[in-house]
Amino acid sequence: MKIINTCEEIKATFVDGFNIDLWRKYAKEISNELPSKCENDAKGYDFEKEVLPVLNLALNNEKIDFVNKNFQSVIKTLNSNLDKLFDKEPDINIVLYLGLCNGAGWATTLDGKNTVLLGIEKIIELGWGDETNMRALILHEIGHLWHKLNGNLHIPEYTKRRKGIAQLYCEGVAMVCEHILCGDDEFYHQDKNGWLDWCYKNENQIKREYLRRLDNKESVQDFFGDWCSYNGRSDVGYFLGCRFVRFLMKANSLKEIANMKYRVLNKAFKEFSNTVIEPLKLEEYSKCSNIWNMKAQPLTEKWREEIATGNRLVFIYKINGEFVGEGALVIDTGDPDYTVPDKRVYVSRMIVKKEYRNRGIGSEILEFLKRKAKEMGFSEMTIGVDKDNENALHLYRKYGFTEVLFDGEDEDGEYFKLMKKI
User: Fold this and answer.
1) Count: domains in the chain
2) Do 169 and 245 belong together in one domain?
3) Range of the domain at 298
4) pLDDT at residue 157 in the model
5) Closest Cα partner for 146 from 175, 117, 187, 122?
6) Is 155 part of a structural domain of the chain?
7) Which residue has the higher pLDDT, 389 or 87?
8) Are 351 and 389 in contact (CB under 8 A)?
9) Which one of 77, 180, 338, 357 is least enclosed by Cβ atoms within 10 Å?
10) Tens digits of residue pLDDT in 346-358
11) Are residues 332 and 383 in contact, defined by beta-carbon separation less than 8 angstroms?
């Protein structure tokens, strides 16, 4: 892996501000291909209004030095993470340069070699020059190159639908790679001012709207790019793409996903868009019987009261409108003999219809309930499990639940408690 850092050259070249002829000479010293590559990519921009102001703002030695310092810090530890995805150090170039607003990150080919171009002007404009954002940016672009080296990065985009599926897929794979390399499945550098919480809360709406636009041959550009927004939020497509790829990973390895064709992806996205977890409406309660394979039972007065007061939250997992899973949270005042805070939240019920088990649905419901509990301000969540239910115990232990002694007994048999810090 070769690192090319041109910060000192930028400062020495553009002492009196930006000049396109000086820039062409500077860019050519990096690569003979770079000037034309950047200029062709920027043809759709209004140079005087959209590009030049950003360039002049970036030509500030203090700002350049800040980016330079953090870039060097990230590069020092970059190799320590790459073995999570690559069998050996990838043969790529990473170039920190002054572009023409071609993007903060650009995974491309330069002189026949896979290259990550990092545009310092966009990094400064977007405020991504700190170490955390710089690392995320580099890892994301390396994720794109991993996709290229291991599969099908470029899907022909000759229709709006194909372009929409391709962009979501490619950014989703890169986001998952970024998460793997940084060791945090919840990290998004866009997560400011409640961005991630908003995305989770509106996930059903987001994916249905994306599908609607695909079906109606409308642009999905609002979901991508810092200059665009969906319902006032930028880069929502990166969240959606990541969730889509995670959905695919229930039945496929990441390398298998990296090689998927458009036809498969298009079909899978329709299923993903019609897979939702949402609050159960009281009038739909009887439909839950098909999950339990039992006759519908009427709601008890206690349940009605708990649901009405918000102390019982029941969520249903649907695929194309079919009820296939259920999870419920109950807020309780606690057990005086149990060493947790007086007010606690516990999973009162979680089940997946038999024919839909072993497809990752239980794990998804559990993660959903965990986020809901966290939203309500709880730092831990409890669950009661039959001590002989090995399948359930395996799932909960896998997700970090630990056993807590409990000497009570349920009417159906002896239970013990599990607890997890959220």
Assistant:
1) 3
2) yes
3) 275-421
4) 76
5) 175
6) no
7) 87
8) no
9) 77
10) 888 888 888 888 8
11) no
